[in-house]
Queue: 2 jobs
Job 1
Amino acid sequence: MEHLEKQIDETRQGEALVLEQTSGTKKMYLESYGCQMNFSDSEIVASILKDQGFSTTKDFHEADVIFVNTCAIRDNAEQRVRNRLNEFKIAKRKNPDLVVGVLGCMAERLKEKFLDEEKIVDIVVGPDAYRDLPNLISKVEGGQKAINVILSKEETYADITPVRLDNTGVTAFISIMRGCDNMCAFCVVPFTRGRERSRDPQSIVAEARDVFEKGYREVTLLGQNVDSYLWAGGGLKKEILTDEQRAAATSFAQLLEMVALVSPELRVRFSTSHPKDMNDDVLHVMAKYENICKYIHLPVQSGSSRMLELMNRGYTREWYMERIEAIRRILPDAGISADIITGFCTETEEDHQETMSLMKWVGYDFSYMFAYSERPKTLAERKYEDDVPEETKKRRLAEVIELQHDLSEIKVKAAVGKVHRVLIEHESKKSDAMWMGRNTQNMVLVFPKGDLKPGQYVNVFAKECTKTTLIGEVVN
Ligand code: SAH
Ligand code: SF4
Ligand code: F3S
């Protein structure tokens, strides 16, 4: 269940994550939907507004400003935001001075249309324009609507220290790059987050060191395609590098090593790897440092090479299988997870079976699975017909979900009877007498609290399990 709850947090389609309360004069309420990048962005927004004297509230009824950081990845992610805006209407009726702002990917996708379609909205801000928020707020206070959806080729917010919204103080997200240059046929992200750009590695390492000194014990490095990370110096664009500059630039493998060296007591995770770019250098660095967690999220999307070609993913089924073999060779114990889409344009029953057979072949520990949802402006929307009937997409989705449940259960059962090194994160959601933590493979364990505290490492013997969670006891 713990694992499931985490799964919901990370469905990338929007469980609300609400800011903790702090003191100040004007009150803001901030809610985030979508992926970890969006959550990490909310921490930047909170930092910018805190500097403007805003305090935060967990109750939107008492807010002066409500911000919703939105996701556009699938239609249902957008519907969820619209439903939420409807709920805020009541608060606005009671307090006509209430300011409602939409941030993030759906704001970027809809731009000024958002102001027309949702009368309640006063501010629309895209992911690269958060520095402009104070200015936009004062514009609204002057009686106007305000919008800034300019995308940037440089912005990485490298100099802004995020206000950590995770209230456990153990795990932190660090964005290492922004945007995406990949243009997968189904995906709206390149349109909502703009061109790929990497962040200065020194600022990343400094941020990791800072959170470690504040007591955090795990960082997750975030990017849409972390394997594509490359830093050649401020202002130097990846596309125009000479061979010499490229050789001297910091790669993701090198960055990973730099962060791992902050402290052996700081666990390092990262997301998302891209099968076309994930190279053995990264795997060797992972093998070299115990504190880099042995877990790789490697989205496959489909097991059919024909589908992968249509999706413009840049690899085949065979290429993907070779990458999995490299992981098994270099990191024999690694946990592996994926993202899977069912019912993409022209997908046949045969294609679907290829996805199922690949899932079995890999034996994923875990997957995020979605029915294809057509997104405006994408290659698929412009060039292909969304021709798989909704009920077929849903039926295939149900089949991959059922298969994944079986595969996950096999993995969890195999971990029973073993001792796992666990970082304690927080109280178990099911029992206030138990702690919850993860092993290096990202598997969830719960065990009696004793006199232990979050942020400590413990060895836990897994005695038994549910379908998704190991139940154990601390051993020496
Ligand atoms: N950059 C990451 C994915 C980011 S989006 C990567 O390349 O793996 C997260 C996941 O949402 C994707 O991996 C994909 O499985 C899913 N997704 C993206 N667009 C979608 C769409 N139009 N319909 C259904 N699922 C989609
Ligand atoms: Fe979207 Fe593909 Fe970029 Fe991932 S790599 S964000 S799926 S375009
Ligand atoms: Fe959603 Fe944007 Fe993330 S579309 S999944 S919030 S990058």
Note: The chain has 16 helices and 22 strands.
Job 2
Amino acid sequence: MGGGDNGVMKSIRLHPGKEKSLRRKHPWVFDGAVARGGADSGETVRVESHEGRFLAWAAFSPRSRIRARVWSFDEAQRIDATFFSDRIARSIQARSFFDIRSDGLRLVHGESDGLPGLVVDRYGDVLVAQFTSCGTERWKQVITQALLDHTGLTQLYERSDASVRQLEGLPEVKGWLSGSGSTERVISEHGWRLALDIDRGHKTGFYLDQRENRQRFFQWTRHRRFETVLNCFCYTGGFTVAALAGGAGHVTSVDSSGPALEQARANVRLNALPLDRTDMLDADVNASLRQFLAQGRRFDAIVLDPPKLAPTVAHAERAARAYKDLNRLGLQLLQPGGVLFTFSCSGGISADLFHKIVASAGTDAEVDAFISERMAGAPDHPMTVHFPEGEYLKGLVLVRKY
Ligand code: SAH
């Protein structure tokens, strides 16, 4: 059998003109583009133009607005266990192209690695996978086996408790798919030890995408000898550890999650850094920033790393106001010469829009600042030419003018 029919005869036919994005190798087919056809949840379908010409092999999602996600644009490609094994092998191999200073890294980053709906992180000896589409759900056993084979590991934990599963009509689930035992791990990032829990932590346990930006914050701290640092949305204290390791005089860390702050304290201790030079506040960041301002407190460096405020473009407007507010307060709280590391991890806010929001926050705050650096997600969370939506994390380093 030379491939090509994929053992199925199911197809979806698009409306006239709706094949354009697929011709540019963009991997999504929206519900409005589909004229007719369908399949079971996650089943492979042949995507055809209005005239019936082959466009792609894709996984069908009966309930999602993203009605199909492309596995391959090659008509001769069979979508089978070998296909997944090859894609996963390539994805893992691509990580050696990048300079990653950690044993915690993302091995598969969805669409960017040709595997839409799949995220896989490795923390030392354990793999954590998130299956967020009907297609990856259907192929879960095959994908799990390929991941174990290509890494030589035996432990794989599933964290498919992401709310995006609801859009696919899939229930939220988590638990061991292979192996068992403790869900706690300690990774080594830039020589720091960072503890995490793959069961209780956010996402797959940790924000690996900020790895290089934490390193950059460490370098700035060492260079500028910040006396007072404010780490907003600190989670388990990655930027707090970076600041203390860089010699910061005092770090105030704020998060509204008690367990995350517990872990942050543990991470400071784990690196033999001085806990007496930190405050960990279980509080709402917005309220804390207003309170600090009213108290006349100022900081030499501030990190603003809020959660995803605009998951899609539809949420962008309200999110833009929230980002602007946060950044206005952040800029007002900076000492002259102070440094703001500000981020957005919203797919719905482009780098360009984020820049505009921060600029407009500066105008409102009546604070001028040098835009010293632009930041992005870590290289193991790549974006690709064909899938610009992959650019979700963006950041700016601002230096307040005197
Ligand atoms: N900078 C972190 C990741 C931040 S994730 C790192 O490097 O690991 C975003 C964090 O914001 C989460 O820990 C979440 O608990 C927290 N959070 C969300 N809304 C908040 C709010 N209104 N006030 C304080 N913390 C909040």
Note: The chain has a mean pLDDT of 96.
